[in-house]
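So, can you check?
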Amino acid sequence: MKIGILGGGQLARMLALAGYPLGLEFIVLDPSADAGAIPLAEHLHGAYDDEALLAQLAEKADVVTYEFENVPAQVAEFLSSHTQVYPSANALAVAQDRLLEKNFFHQINIPTARFAPIDNLADLEKVMPDIGYPAILKSRRMGYDGKGQIVLKSTDDLASAWNSMQEAPSIVEGFVAFSREVSIIAARRPSGEIAFYPLSENKHRGGILRVSEACHDDALQTQAQEYVTRLLETLDYVGVIALELFEVDGGLVANEFAPRVHNSGHWTIEGSETSQFENHLRAILDLPLGSTQTRGFAGMVNFIGDVASSEQVLSLSHAHLHLYAKQPRKGRKVAHATVRTDDKEEFTRILKGLVALANQTDNS
């Protein structure tokens, strides 16, 4: 079986690494000549909307998936007329547009922060008395890792914030007074079977995920599973999905979902019986999903902009380093490290050590 992947970055790289033991082959379409997955897959080098390359991808791949949600939805639709594509173009289209996404959450009774569509400065000025301050203005499309987002602290910020959006269709959201940020990773296959991972507790800085820890017997696990099940079943979703959430007053409020394997689930590579990457492949091939049971205590630390030496990271017992074959660059995710151990105190100590190394090399 050959898996086609739109995008050849680190997520495609990790999918390929998970697929090789299953005897799978991979082909990626990516405009970069040195994308991280290229050593592990056949490479179609060109734009995502190049129909000649898309036709090649559809001809060579038994099923096509994608590693990031900013692939044009029409590309997924084009491929769907030639081969199997998971997740569907519909799921991709909803996730790509923050307004569609927020409206969809409300349609399936998942709470969110207050929000309003913004198409001009007058719209922004009109809705802010209801939204309140502080708030955040976001582009409806193409934002990730804190990009395309501006914090609004008072009416004095509105004009400059709108100007910085360069008239792009936007959405404004009220701030959520959350006690923590969490996410749930789940996988669903065409037959309807769903597998849930334990909640991850996530820490961000500058809009970029820094640390994720697997939660044991979390009181909000059931509610998170109910929410993500609504997403999966309403969208008739196939593959791995990540639903990002805020804990507010003992309940959960949705932030966004990602129709793909997700950074907050990287700890599953060593920390789960079956990683999110293997379960994504199982799901899109309609194979039985693997156990998502956590193996002891598990967590993940991102390296942003640059990475500590392999010797430094691997000197920490139970640490596992994952390099992305990326050149250091400000704000770029270049690697992550996971830790997994059966001892809680040892886990906490090693995770702190990894965070210290990440802070030393941080260039975000």
Q: What stands out?
A: The mean pLDDT is 95. The chain has three domains: 2-85, 114-174, 180-361. Residues 344-361 form the longest helix (18 residues). The longest strand covers residues 239-248.
